[in-house]
User: Fold this.
Amino acid sequence: MTTTTEAAPETRSFEADVAKLLHLMVHSVYSDKDVFLRELISNAADACEKLRYEGLSDAALLGDDGQPRITVTLDAEARRLTIEDNGIGMSEAELADALGTIARSGTKAFMDKIAGAKDSGDSHLIGQFGVGFYSAFMVADRVEVVSRRAGSDSAASWASDGLGTYTIQPVDTADAPARGTRVLLHLKEDAASYTESYTIERTIKTQSGHVPVPIFLKDAPDAEPKQIADGAALWTKPKSEITAEEYQDFYRSAAGQFDAPALTLHYRAEGLHEYTVLAFVPETKPFDLFDPDRAGRVKLYVRRVFITDEAQILPRYLRFVRGLVDSNDLPLNVSREMIQESPVLAAIQKAVSNRILSELDKLATSDTERYLKIWDTFGPVLKEGLYEDFARRETLLGLARFKSTTSGGAWRSLKDYVADLKDNQTAIYYATGTDLERLATSPQLEGFRARGIEVLLLADQVDSFWVTSGVDYEGKPFKSVTQGLADLSLIPLADGEQPAAAASDAVNDFIAFVKETLGDAVADVRASDRLTESAACLVAPEHGMDRQLEKLLAGAGRLDAAAKPVLEINPRHALVERLSAADAGDADVRADAAHLLFDEARIADGELPVDPRAFSARLMRVLQRGMN
Ligand SMILES: Nc1ncnc2c1ncn2[C@@H]1O[C@H](COP(=O)(O)OP(=O)(O)OP(=O)(O)O)[C@@H](O)[C@H]1O
Assistant:
């Protein structure tokens, strides 16, 4: 049936974010404009896969054209390029929704980044963020899309010059594909090479040669279509027939990444369940790594039919892994929701997750340098598993690498740490904070340094959570250097370090005075074992929460009030000795000193003084006295 309409096109404005994105695209200075072709072909292939899936439950949608196909047509004379698919298509409403609004959460992140990187011309960004359809405006000054949804007897068109508005209108079905979508690009003058057969064929073969839908090329509008990609799913081929480049091209087009995979895993599981896995660990962080939904992107296929990318095949802490699992056993004709409940899927989830972790473990020994790069990039995400996945905690602790006070910037495993324990050392010590450099200089570490005890420096947000969740490694608990009594006296001092004399009576009196002066502000004031250079530091009370975790929770409004800290004073510090002396001055001077010691310890922890005005008044008074 053919419908004709006389309606005038309706002009609409893009959502503000789309308009901004388009502006960036149109004015982009990227050398790598080829990306647009990959994005449009990947959209066309997705549309074919969506139809293949919907066709399982509604064969009528396929009509008499069951073969998915993408056709690219060149028109050098008119400087036009067309990409057409016979996939699912879009209704008028879907056109407006998909091409007039920001469909992906990552797009905003992309824009923020691209705006910053504009001058440096970082061509990797577009690929990284997979901004898809709009990349057409890098090469075209006008884009027209005509689409007809499978099973519908009407068609619609969308057109825009990428300058803030688009038009949308119903079109005669005679002017639309019988089913699917046609994207017509009016190429810019400097993009004329995209009508050259050779250029297009080479670009498609390298970027999209392994999409699971055959691709045809027509050199001219009336030329015969020639098949340039067979649509054979790469993962079904034997490993020995696939080159590293083919894996990389597939990874790029399927995962929307622009980097090279840091690890490629391709295997076939046989036995109770049969399935094929083709998984990649990216080299760089995917843009959506820290999206709040923490969703994974591994796709689920059943006998080469794409089912869903929402099956959450891997645990959330492996969400950086890209790729697919193609199962032979799952039924094709069940809904996505039912598949989620399937015990077969559960078995696949478990086995694939274990396999990925064991491959990482193997890599850690076989190619340490490559492994450490992966850890450097994704360690903070993998560490989420330490408190989320109890069953795999051991494995994850084995994979974990840390910077420490004695590693000189190198990564250390817990195995390394435990091998170097000092005599009488029964715990794994760590310090948490937000910045490695500052952590390494924190006063709490001084007593550890004097004994040569290695302290792990944990600077990722996630660290405060797992490390306080009751973990141990080979029977050794993790203990914060800011927590409780450090119990260091049992561990011998390193060569050349002098054992500390017990605090004198005068110092003990001074400590009692400080405690009285500070009153409720602190849980306790005591002489410190752990300080050798600084005069004072703050620690958590015995059994208290790690101070860094406490700060994080309080900052997130998840803690009513932080527990009061313990102020530890270094009884051997010259200033403390001087303040403790009988002639140190009147009670006012000592009271100022008590408050200043407390405030100074807070500052060393990256906090503000309790009362910044009182702090500056005291500081001024003390300085003035010093001048007199
Ligand atoms: N050829 C097509 N057939 C059917 N729908 C399409 C087609 N091209 C685009 N779309 C629709 O437009 C939406 C937006 O496309 P766009 O390429 O901008 O983002 P995406 O495909 O969701 O993500 P990305 O391409 O960045 O991976 C798609 O999600 C899809 O719904």
Summary: The chain has three domains: 10-229, 234-371, 505-627. The domain at 234-371 is CATH 3.30.230.80 (Ribosomal Protein S5; domain 2). The first helix runs from residue 16 to 26.
